[in-house]
Design a protein that fits this description.
By secondary structure, the protein is α/β, with parallel strands linked by helices. It folds into 2 domains: 142 residues, NAD(P)-binding Rossmann-like Domain (Rossmann fold, 3-Layer(aba) Sandwich), CATH 3.40.50.720; 210 residues, 2-Layer Sandwich (Dihydrodipicolinate Reductase, domain 2). It is built from 14 helices and 15 strands. The protein has a 7-stranded mixed beta sheet. Helix 4 links the parallel strand 4 and strand 5. The protein is globular and about 50 Å long. The two termini are 38 Å apart. Bound molecules: NADP nicotinamide-adenine-dinucleotide phosphate.
């Protein structure tokens, strides 16, 4: 499993192919390439569990679940037992020292991404990184410095990956969600101008303690949740540009507002809290307006204050068509229960507050969100040497636009991108 040959240079988008995540029509490589791809996962929480389930669903490429490195030994060991990883450690170096680990999958909190990615790349491992690629973790009061330092962190990761000649995969599941891939193909078939994108990711608040403070998260709802619809919007306009002229359409300017609506006095006095609260120095609500270089617009909403289960939506307004993507909830199945006990332990949907009343039970929720498809593509890329749809360039753009958005929110003005 040799590192790939990687050209030096700036962060450019990979050519990309018009396919649905898990490669359609892809044939397994020859027998000589079929050494199992050894997986080392970092972190043992929510995202790591989703990825581990996705490795178990990988087809056509043999994978070997070698080990997990995480912070708390008992949780790392329980994770390894649950998903069939051969060993658990609290030492990243122990995972990286294993020659049978070829691909390191970073599912640790945001503040740890850079250090783990750089160490893994230097150890010659291909790397997957959960969103966001990286962020700024210092005092969030100087937006120009935040933006510069976040950009510098991206650059350090990019250089480490380039110098090591390893693959980098950006685990942005929206890019691999079947609805987004279908929308992309419909846009390509329509050939019209994508005038306006309206997209949202929202739920009733993160479970993770690392999400509550800037020094471990690097941002609030805008970064944690907005990164998903933002990446999908960037991806669709990028592909439109490549189709039209061979040059991606990128973001020209951003205007943003962030807020802490869970600090509204009337809410703080309510006896029952249905949405998460206790955010320290990170926002729980954000709205972002993008102007693209061709003049198109996008509006992205992200918040931790929405009840009724996770809400992942994207609407596309084209000059010759319209597309609505409901990643979650969708009405493949609709159910009613007069009380919350009726459906017992049967899973309904991520972050749903109650099983009473009408609900939208998720059928293969991970598939609708694109998790198995992204992992399938990443292991296929390692096996074949091809580039992924969700790459370093997209990861870098998400950080760049997000921190320009924080600058806009802090300074109360539109911010231009280079
Ligand atoms: N794509 C998606 O839909 C999605 C969804 C959720 C999260 N994410 C991303 O996934 C990443 C993890 O988030 P999460 O929700 O899984 O968080 P989480 O549930 O809090 O889990 C984080 C895990 O990382 C471990 N950890 C903490 N510091 C570490 C370090 N320095 N080195 C190695 N492991 C460390 C934690 O250990 P302890 O058990 O000791 O705390 C925990 O097992 C974040 O970057 C987040 O943005 C993506």
């Amino acid at each position: 499993m040799a590192p790939r040959n990687s050209p030096a240079g700036g962060i450019r988008p990979a050519a990309g192919r018009p396919h649905v995540g898990a490669a359609e029509g892809w044939q397994p490589p020859g027998e000589e390439c079929m050494e199992p791809i050894g997986i080392g996962i970092v972190g043992a929480g929510f995202a790591a569990n989703q990825h581990a389930a996705a490795y178990q669903a990988v087809t056509r490429v043999p994978v070997n679940l070698v080990g997990v490195a995480s912070r708390t030994p008992e949780r790392a060991e329980a994770f390894a037992r649950r998903h069939g990883f051969a060993f658990a450690t609290t030492e990243l170096a122990a995972l990286l020292a294993r020659p049978d680990v070829h691909l390191v999958d970073v599912c640790a909190p945001n503040f740890a991404h850079e250090e783990i990615l750089v160490a893994a790349a230097r150890a010659g491992k291909h790397v997957i990184c959960e969103k966001p690629l990286t962020a700024f973790f210092g005092d969030p009061t100087d937006p120009a410095r935040m933006r510069d330092e976040a950009r510098a962190s991206v650059q350090r990761i990019h250089e480490a990956v380039q110098q090591a000649g390893v693959h980098f995969f950006y685990a942005e599941n929206w890019i691999y969600a079947p609805a987004i891939q279908k929308a992309m193909r419909l846009c390509e078939a329509a050939g019209g101008t994508l005038f306006d994108i309206r997209a949202e990711e929202a739920h009733s608040g993160s479970h993770s303690p690392y999400a509550r403070q800037w020094r471990t998260s690097g941002g609030g709802s805008l970064l944690r949740l907005g990164s998903h619809p933002l990446a999908a919007a960037l991806y669709l306009k990028r592909r439109e540009g490549l189709r039209r002229s061979g040059t991606p359409i990128r973001v020209a300017s951003v205007t943003c507002e962030v807020a802490n609506v869970t600090r509204i006095p009337s809410f703080t006095q309510e006896p029952t809290r249905w949405v998460a609260s206790g955010w320290q120095d990170v926002e729980d609500w954000a709205t972002l307006l993008l102007e693209f270089t061709d003049g198109a617009r996008a509006s992205i909403a992200a918040s931790d204050i929405v009840l009724g289960g996770i809400r992942n939506r994207m609407e596309l307004y084209l000059s010759n068509g319209r597309i609505d993507c409901n990643l979650n909830p969708n009405n493949t199945c609709v159910a009613y229960a007069p009380s919350p006990e009726v459906f017992g332990d049967e899973y309904i949907a991520e972050k749903l507050d109650t099983k009473a009343g009408w609900s939208f039970p998720s059928i293969n929720e991970d598939w609708f969100q694109g998790y198995p498809q992204e992992i399938q593509e990443f292991v296929e890329c390692v096996a074949t040497g091809r580039e992924p749809l969700s790459d370093m360039s997209l990861a870098a753009d998400v950080v760049e636009v997000t921190y320009a958005a924080y600058q806009s929110a802090r300074e109360g003005r539109r911010v231009l991108l280079a």
